[in-house]
Amino acid sequence: MLVNTKKLLQCQGVPYEQKERQNHQSKGFAYIETYGCQMNFADTEVVAAILAQEGYGFTQNPQEADVIFINTCSIRENAEQKIWNRLKVFRQIKQKRPHVLVGVLGCMAERLKKQLLEEEQCVDMVVGPDAYRSIPKLIEQVHFGEKAVNVLLSREETYADIAPLRLHSNGVTAFLSIMRGCNNMCTFCVVPFTRGRERSRDPDTIVREAQQLFEQGYRDITLLGQNVDSYNYKGVRFAQLLAMVAEIHPKLRVRFTTSHPKDMTDDVLYTMARYENLCKYIHLPVQSGSNRILALMRRGYTREWYLQRIERIRSILPDCAIATDIIAGFCSETEEDHQQTLDLMERVRFNSAFMFYYSERPGTYAARKLKDDVPLEVKKRRLQEIIRLQQQHSLYRNREWIGKTVEVLIEGDSKRSKEDFSGRTSQNMVVVFPKHSSYKVGDYVQVRIISATSATLKGEIVS
Ligand code: SAH
Ligand code: SF4
Ligand code: F3S
Predict the structure, then answer these.
(1) Are 373 and 415 in a shared domain?
(2) 252: Cβ below 6 Å to ligand 1?
(3) Is residue 178 domain-shared with residue 134, that is, in the same domain?
C-alpha cells in the first residue's frame, strides 16, 4: 500500500463557495486532516459523508472550524510523532476558542485508545477505524461535557452503504475501499492491531459506487485493500471483481493496491491482460531480498518465489510497471542480508519504490520477541544505499519511454507551471506537457515522451 505519511494532504480540491457554506452550516464547520495510507484518505471521505449528513459544513482552515478531526497513522514512530506535533497546534486553537471539539480518528486512535486523552488534554474524542458511524453520538456526548471514546473493532463493518464525500477529489481520480483489515500478521506491522480482521465488501456496492463515479466524470479509480489478492465476498474473488469493475466502461481506468506476493495469482494477471482499462501497474511490496529476513518477517514467500512472480508479470503483461516497498534494517539484518536486498532490486529494476528504515511498533511480534538491534546510523546508511539504487532504476525505467507515444489521462495543472498539464499513464507515470485549448482535465490525450527524470516524464501532445 502506498504510504504517504511525509505529505500532509489537507482537505483540498473542493472549493467551498460561500453559498455552499451557508447551506450546510446548521451544525458548524468541520476540518479534517489526514495522514497515512490511501485507506485513511478513503476513510476520511466516509467520515465527511457522515458529518455532512448531520448538517456540518467543511472548512480548509482549522482556525475557523468548530470540529477538528485528525485521521492518524501508526505505521512508523515518526508518523505518530507528526500527529503529536499537530495536536499541540490544535491545543493552541482550542485555548483561543474553547468550544472547538478535537477528535482523533484512525490507527493511532485504535492503538493508543484512552491513553490519547490522558497524554494530550486538548483531545475530546477518540474513534477507531471501525467506529465512524458512532461519531454523531460521540459528538453529542462531548457536548454534554464528557470525553468520548469508541475503539471497537468489527468483523463486518465495511461502510458499504455510505457514499463517500469526495473531499480530496480533483474530479478525475478517486479511491474506493473494497476490503478492510488484515489477517497477515507480518511481524513488523501494526496494521492488524489497528485495523482488525480482514473483511471484504459486497461487490455489488463496489460496482455501483464505481458506476456512479464514472457518471460523475471520474475516470481513474483505485480499489483499496491491505491485501487485495485475498478479496473474497461469498466466493467472489479479486480477479472476478476486477472484471466486473472493468466492464463498467472502457474509458474508466481501474487501479488497485496493495497486492501481496504470496497471494497474487496468475488469474489476476490474465484478467489485467484482458481489459485495456485495467491499469498496467502493480504494487508488490517485497520488504527484503533476504530469505532469512523474509522468514523473520513472516511474509510467507521467499526471494525465489517473489522473482518468479515478477517473471509471471513480465511474461503475461510485458508493459506492466512494478513498484515495491522495502524496509531497511529489520531485526538482526546483516550486511549480507542487505546486499541480498540490493541484489534483488538489481534483478527486478522496479519502476518505483517506497523505502523505509525499520521502526519498532509496540505490541507487534517483532517488538515482543525479536531484538531491534541494527543501530540507527546503520539503518539510515542502508536506506540511503537502497534509495540511491532505486533512483537509478526509476530513471532507467522512465527513460525507456522516451520517443514513445502514450495515452495520458489529464488530472490537472502541473505543479510547476499553469501553462502545463499533468496526468498519468496506465503505468502510473506522471507526464507533464504543454496545454492545448482543445483538451481539459478528465480527457485522454496522446503524448509523445521527450525527456525523463527519475520522477517525471515530459512530452508533447500528438495531434
Ligand atoms: N499491506 C501492505 C503494506 C501496508 S503498510 C503490504 O503488505 O504490503 C505499507 C508499508 O509500510 C509496508 O509495505 C512496509 O514497507 C512499511 N512498514 C510497515 N511497518 C513498518 C515498520 N514497522 N517499520 C518500517 N516500515 C514499515
Ligand atoms: Fe501489514 Fe503485512 Fe498486513 Fe501488509 S500484509 S498490512 S505489511 S500485516
Ligand atoms: Fe494506513 Fe497507517 Fe493505518 S499506513 S492502515 S493509516 S497505520
Answers:
(1) no
(2) no
(3) no
Q: Whose C-alpha lies nearest to ligand 2, atom 5?
A: 184
374-402 residues labelled b (16+ CB within 10 A) or e (exposed): beeebbeebbebbeebbeebbeebbeebe
Q: Please indicate, yes or no, whether residues 77 and 130 belong to a single structural domain of this protein.
A: yes
Atom of ligand 1 nearest to the CA of 355: 15
Same domain, 217 and 116: no
392 and 435 in contact (C-beta within 8 Å)? no
For 247, the 3-state DSSP assignment is coil
371 and 437 part of one domain:
no
Q: Is the CB of 356 within 6 Å of ligand 1? A: yes
Residue ranges of E strands in 156-239: 173-177, 179-180, 199-200, 220-224, 232-233, 236-237
Query: Which atom in ligand 3 lies closest to the alpha carbon of residue 74?
Result: 7
Is 358 near ligand 1, meaning CB less than 6 Å away?
A: yes
Same-domain status, 394 and 424: no
Report the separation in Å between the CA atom of 2 and the middle of ligand 3, taken as the mean of its atom positions: 10
pTM score of the predicted model: 0.94
CA distance 282 to 268: 11
Q: Which atom of ligand 3 is nearest to the CA of 39?
A: 1
Pocket-testing residue among 40, 75, 229, 282, ligand 1, by greatest number of atoms within 8 A of Cβ? 75
287 C-beta closer than 6 A to ligand 1: yes
Q: Which atom of ligand 3 is nearest to the CA of 107?
A: 3
Return the ligand number nearest the Cα of 42: 3
Contact 7, 73 (CB under 8 A): no
The answer to whether the CB of 3 is under 6 A from ligand 3 is: yes
Q: Print the domain residue range for 229.
A: 173-399
Place of cell 533476504: 290
Q: How far is the CA of 182 from the centre of ligand 2 (A)?
A: 6
Name the packing angle between helices 303-316 and 266-274 (round to 10°): 20
Query: Ligand 2 center to residue 183 CA distance, Å?
Result: 8
pLDDT in tens, the chain (463 residues): 433 332 333 333 333 333 344 445 578 999 999 999 999 999 999 999 999 999 999 999 999 999 999 999 999 999 999 999 999 999 999 999 999 999 999 999 999 999 999 999 999 999 999 999 999 999 999 999 999 999 999 999 999 999 999 988 899 999 999 999 999 999 999 999 999 999 999 999 999 999 999 999 999 999 999 999 999 999 999 999 999 999 999 999 999 999 999 999 999 999 999 999 999 999 999 999 999 999 999 999 999 999 999 999 999 999 999 999 999 999 999 999 999 999 999 999 999 999 999 999 999 999 999 999 999 999 999 999 999 999 999 999 999 999 999 999 999 999 999 999 999 999 999 999 999 999 999 999 999 999 999 999 999 999 7
Does 233 reside within a domain?
yes
